[in-house]
Write a structure and sequence with these properties.
The protein has 329 residues and is α/β, with parallel strands linked by helices. It is built from twelve helices and twelve strands. The chain binds S-adenosylmethionine and iron/sulfur cluster (SF4).
């Protein structure tokens, strides 16, 4: 087994999030500005062969966990081809995908066959009309059908990502948490992060407030922490089949245990979600850099991974250039 690379702050880096497209079939208010995001030209986006080459190199360097994201990863043609090829890489212990679920009805079984083992589905409300206004174009019933298809295909646990926002869906926190009672879902509440979007920083709801609301439902039993929990703290309502996760990137940041790298659809390596520092791997690939050169550049980026982000949402807002849809959450 290859030992993962370690950054300057002694954190082993073993997780790579691959954004494979900047396109999306939704336009969530917290992720995209109202005027949309100019699309990258096809030539700017990494080809599957380029993504696979970089992934192969990263895995050789010690990356073991890979998540495919976007934009919406399922809108990219032949996504299962990419999944199969990543799953086949020796050294990949976990291959997962984050989706808005709209196309899962069509893809769930094929993704499972292709080697995806876990799916996260973004779902911020259980109310169809509210879903359409949050996503601006989406159909709740299609996502729910996608979720059912994922269950049928054998994905378990299915993680539901809920971005909690004031006056948008904060009144549904309890109802969404109750989904975990009778379903083996992990319902994860995420603090809104102030990237460029149509949402206002004033809509931020802290995880402390979310936990306070949830504790009105009954005793929240903390779940044993496992090393692959990532940034979520998990609880269980007594007698529940599923879990409740709390993800607080802003109020209780998890920088000391951050093990992540991100590769954007246009081939930029980002070592911190909240920093604009990027390493252009696409140009290197296209200038025919050798594997050794790429290893060196990726190693340098890892070495300079920031220790932490600032907790101040005001400052964060100013320093984050790309909207989430262009980074890959
Ligand atoms: N389209 C896919 C989806 O929605 O699941 C994958 C990409 S999306 C950018 C990945 C995750 O980022 C989603 O769970 C989404 O809810 C989350 N996200 C987007 N913008 C966010 C924001 N401003 N704050 C917190 N989470 C955000
Ligand atoms: Fe699209 Fe996902 Fe962003 Fe919503 S959160 S606009 S589904 S990329």
């Amino acid at each position: 087994m290859v030992v993962p690379p370690v950054d300057a702050h002694h954190r082993p880096i073993d997780y790579l999030r691959l954004s494979i497209t900047d396109r999306c079939n939704l336009r969530c208010v917290y992720c995209m500005p109202s005027h949309g995001v100019p699309r990258l030209d096809h030539s700017q986006i990494l080809s599957y062969e380029e993504i696979l080459r970089l992934t192969r190199i990263a895995v050789k360097m010690g990356i073991t966990k890979i998540r495919i994201t976007g934009g919406e990863p399922l809108v990219r043609r032949d996504v299962t081809y990419l999944c199969e090829n990543i799953a086949a890489l020796k050294g990949v212990s976990s291959l997962s995908l984050t989706t808005n679920g709209l196309l899962l009805g069509q893809y769930a079984a094929a993704l499972r066959r292709a080697g995806i083992r876990r799916v996260n589905i973004s779902l911020d409300t259980l109310r169809p009309s509210r879903f359409s206004s949050i996503t601006r174009v989406g159909c709740f019933h299609k996502v729910w059908a996608g979720l059912e298809a994922a269950q049928k295909a054998g994905f378990s646990p299915i993680k539901l990502n809920v971005v909690v926002m004031r006056h948008l869906n904060d009144d549904e926190v309890e109802e969404m948490a109750l989904l975990s009672l009778r379903n083996p879902f992990h319902v994860r509440f995420i603090e809104f992060m102030p990237f460029p979007s149509s949402a206002s920083r004033k809509q931020f709801v802290s995880s402390d407030e979310i936990v306070e609301r949830l504790s009105r439902l009954g005793r929240l039993v903390p779940c044993e922490s496992r090393s692959n929990n990532g940034p979520a703290r998990y609880f269980r309502l007594e007698g529940a089949l599923g879990k409740i996760g709390i993800i607080s990137p802003i109020s209780h940041h998890f920088c000391p245990s951050c093990n992540r790298l991100r590769l954007t659809a246009d081939g930029k390596l980002r070592t911190c979600l909240f920093s604009n520092a990027e390493t252009d791997l696409r140009d290197l690939l296209r200038q025919k850099a050798s594997d050794e050169e790429l290893v060196q550049v990726i190693g340098q980026a890892i070495a300079s991974k920031p220790e932490k982000h600032t907790l101040d949402p005001e400052v964060l807002h100013k320093c984050m250039g790309r909207p989430m849809v262009r980074i890959g959450g």
